[in-house]
């Protein structure tokens, strides 16, 4: 089959390209740049560019429709949010030309809204951190806040479309009323509503799924061993683990309520106080650590293509535990953070190992069961591309 994948500079796109190319499919990688990490792979059949979707969704969609038609694409796999959402909104144009294994646009939109998902979780009995929504600037009476410090600040959406373009938001922390006021005042009005949540201490666990029109087909879980930044961010070292039964039940409730179709990640923190998984967010797309799932035996890209082509796939429930995946240059970034920033600047939670232990842990070159995410001896060019870009920064 001829499969077009977007976001060529995404690590998940590289994992998709390798997976499907090894399975014998012709993988056409696309991106907004003339060079990309996935396009360097030996499993990339062709590479094409499109207009930046963050600047013009309409031009991006028109260009992608044209590519799908000209290249006679069988399956289209948009990868990151900035591509997934515009494609889902125009799905009729794409489905007239190819298979598109995405949920409905309103399901994607709801999953991307942390406020909406927190409300849905409460309705379904899914545990979440203690939360409060600040709908607009100046609304909160900080002195009456009942959430203990440190407080987590989460704009409801990670990306907000404005008249000037896309506004990217992130998670922040406040350890006092004064700090909270200052940080709320610094959030643009367009980024509201903002969720205030208690900070949950404990390991992060990710549960990953592939659904076929509301039916769970494949599931996988990993635990985060290291993150960049260490206060909470993208995982740079992770390990495959059994599904946490409670988190799995919560995830099936949430994705079932959204009538999910395709892939999704549901992220939790395992609260060290009572060992309860607390919902953090849902990502309705492929995730950055996708290669780990493939290495452990759950080939999500191949499964999704089988579903897209109309095959009824039997549930896949077994995979290897204890497989580790390390994003090497992400880990180097983490090492530099520990070397150059103080504990306060890193906003580390209570109980986090001290700087020396953290540095020595990152410097450990290898442990049994560990694989490098990008560096593969049979397909080395993507790692060379990434390394060159890292040194150019």
Automatic annotation (TrEMBL):
Organism whose genome encodes this protein: Woeseia oceani
Alphabetized UniProt keyword annotations: ATP-binding, Nucleotide-binding
Keyword Chloroplast assigned: no
Pfam family, any one: ATPgrasp_Ter
Family matches, as SUPFAM superfamilies: Glutathione synthetase ATP-binding domain-like
ATP-grasp domain boundaries: 118-309
One Gene Ontology term of the molecular function aspect: metal ion binding
Annotated InterPro entries: ATP-grasp (IPR011761)
Source taxon at top rank: Bacteria
Keyword ATP-binding recorded: yes
Record's protein name: ATP-grasp domain-containing protein
């Amino acid at each position: 089959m001829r499969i077009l994948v977007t976001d060529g500079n995404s690590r998940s796109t590289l994992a998709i390209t390798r997976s499907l190319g090894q399975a014998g499919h012709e993988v056409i990688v696309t991106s907004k740049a003339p060079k990309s990490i996935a396009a360097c792979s030996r499993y990339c059949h062709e590479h094409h560019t499109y207009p930046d979707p963050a600047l013009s969704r309409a031009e991006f969609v028109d260009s992608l429709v044209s590519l799908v038609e000209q290249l006679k694409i069988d399956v289209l796999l948009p990868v990151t949010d900035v591509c997934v959402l515009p494609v889902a909104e125009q799905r009729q144009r794409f489905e007239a030309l190819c298979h598109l294994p995405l949920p409905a646009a309103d399901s994607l939109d709801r999953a991307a809204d942390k406020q909406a998902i927190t409300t849905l979780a409460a309705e379904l009995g899914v545990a979440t951190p203690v939360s409060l929504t600040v709908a607009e600037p100046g609304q909160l009476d900080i002195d009456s806040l009942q959430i203990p410090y440190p407080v987590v600040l989460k704009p409801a959406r990670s990306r907000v479309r404005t008249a000037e373009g896309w506004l990217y938001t992130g998670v922040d922390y406040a350890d006092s009323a004064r700090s909270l006021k200052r940080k709320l005042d610094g959030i643009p009005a367009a980024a509201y509503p903002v969720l205030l949540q208690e900070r949950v201490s404990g390991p992060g666990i990710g549960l990953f799924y592939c659904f076929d029109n509301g039916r769970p087909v494949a599931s996988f879980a990993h635990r985060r061993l290291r993150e960049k930044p260490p206060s909470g961010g993208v995982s740079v070292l992770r390990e495959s683990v059994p599904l946490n039964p409670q988190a799995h039940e919560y995830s099936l409730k949430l994705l079932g309520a959204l009538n999910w179709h395709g892939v999704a990640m549901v992220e939790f923190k395992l609260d060290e106080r009572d060992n309860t998984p607390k919902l953090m967010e849902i990502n309705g797309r492929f995730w950055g650590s996708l290669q780990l799932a493939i290495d452990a035996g759950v080939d999500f890209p191949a499964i999704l293509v089988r579903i897209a082509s109309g095959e009824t796939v039997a549930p896949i429930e077994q995979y290897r535990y204890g497989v580790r995946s390390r994003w090497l240059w992400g880990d180097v970034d983490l090492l530099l953070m520990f070397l150059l920033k103080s504990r306060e600047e890193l906003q580390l939670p209570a109980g986090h190992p001290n700087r020396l232990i953290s540095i020595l842990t990152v410097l450990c070159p290898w442990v049994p069961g560990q694989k490098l995410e990008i560096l593969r001896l049979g397909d080395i060019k993507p790692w060379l591309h990434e390394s060159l870009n890292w040194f150019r920064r």
